[in-house]
Design brief:
single chain, mainly alpha, 81% helix
Length: 108
């Protein structure tokens, strides 16, 4: 009997997640001069999931993007225990780098 093998995560999604975590780590180092790998991984996981949820739920493209950026900022501010503004900078930088990463991986 043949086994049905369905991957839960594609390689490109895993690569995008790890690269995003790296970008969050770098952005946090630059903006608040502190970061940890675990905090970056958790921030990337939660921010990616919530941003994807927002993009799926909100019909308006512009509004969805704005809300996704706000979600990134909130998640970054919460995980790094920093101000809203610094969280927004970390979140915005990481989110833009995430979009670039997804675009590049999609071209491969």
């Amino acid at each position: 009997m043949a086994e049905l093998s369905v991957p839960l995560v594609s390689w490109s999604s895993l690569a995008a997640f790890l690269v995003t975590a790296l970008f969050i780590y770098i952005a946090a180092r630059i903006v608040i001069d502190r970061s940890g790998v675990i905090a970056a991984l958790l921030t990337a996981l939660v921010a990616n999931l919530l941003a994807a949820l927002v993009l799926q739920v909100v019909d308006n493209g512009t509004l969805a993007i704005i809300l996704a950026v706000v979600v990134w900022a909130l998640v970054a501010a919460l995980f790094y225990r920093t101000s809203w503004l610094k969280g927004a900078v970390i979140g915005l930088v990481a989110w833009v780098l995430w979009l670039i990463t997804i675009w590049v991986i999609g071209r491969i």
